[in-house]
Automatic annotation (TrEMBL):
Highest taxon in the source lineage: Eukaryota
UniProt xrefs under Pfam families: Lipocalin (PF00061)
KW Protein transport (keyword) present: no
The protein's name: Retinol binding protein 2
Chain ranges passing through the membrane: none
Organism, as annotated: Junco hyemalis
Keywords: Transport
Amino acid sequence: MPADYNGTWEMQSNENFEGYMVALGIDFATRKIAKHLKQTKEIVQNGDNFKTKTLSTFRNYDLDYTVGVEFEEHTKGLDNRKPFSAGIT
């Protein structure tokens, strides 16, 4: 069983985030907005199952996953990709 991540987490910094967004091909205006956001992440963990809520002034979204199980994620509002993620924590 993974470590206990239950709780509310506040973003402290986002160093190199703009470079990451450039590498993804995210447009200039979206990068400028996104790099100034302060996000709050709420995590509810039940064993290997995670329910997360990401909250910001730009966009809120939910993501549920199980460790080790592939799932599709939609990066709506950022670059609109639908990557598959492995659910690694």
